[in-house]
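Re: your question about NADPH-dependent oxidoreductase

S., sorry for the slow reply, the queue was backed up all week. Below is exactly what I fed in.
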Amino acid sequence: MALSAIALNCSLKAKGDSSTDAMIRVLAEAFGKHDAKLTETIRISAENVKTGVSSDEGDGDAWPAIRQKILAADILIFGTPIWMGQMGSVAKRVLERMDAFLSETDEAGRQPSFGKVAVAAIVGNEDGAHISSAQIFQSLNDTGWTIPAAAVCYWVGEAMGDIDFKDLSKTPDKVLETAAMTAANAAHLAKLLKGKTYPGMPDN
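Result:
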């Protein structure tokens, strides 16, 4: 069963290669081994994603089209850098926009993202991967996404160092091993859900 994946790159940079891009590429390669193709990476900071908590914040808002794309895919790769020990502000904006899913349920009480799998790609220096993944996964779970086991692939550099993930001469073996596990688990779960999704709220 072929799967589609889409990545959101929540780098603070609007253009140019970023370490978040590099981590997304590592995961995309791992997903490719499980018939899951990355169809697109969307750089959120290059789009006019307005602040707010609805699915459409009016004229010029880029989120409605992005929302349509992520919900059309089977797997979401949520990529963010770490800033000041936590996920970046762009990632927070995306999660705030997904808050609208809470009220956009179908007749069975299922949010638009039900049956869709999400994983995280996190990069940064020193610390913050664990708190960032905790915040991301709590928010994604609240808004209907399914989180597989070993759902985050991350890298953090040496404390007070100046080397970014994209500048490494070689991807660390541990990162590759983690990416392989993340992709295998997520693809397996996505195939199960694509074949038979959640039943929704039972009748009273």
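Residues 3-195 form a domain with the Rossmann fold fold (CATH 3.40.50.360). DSSP finds five helices and six strands in the chain.

Happy to talk it through on Thursday.
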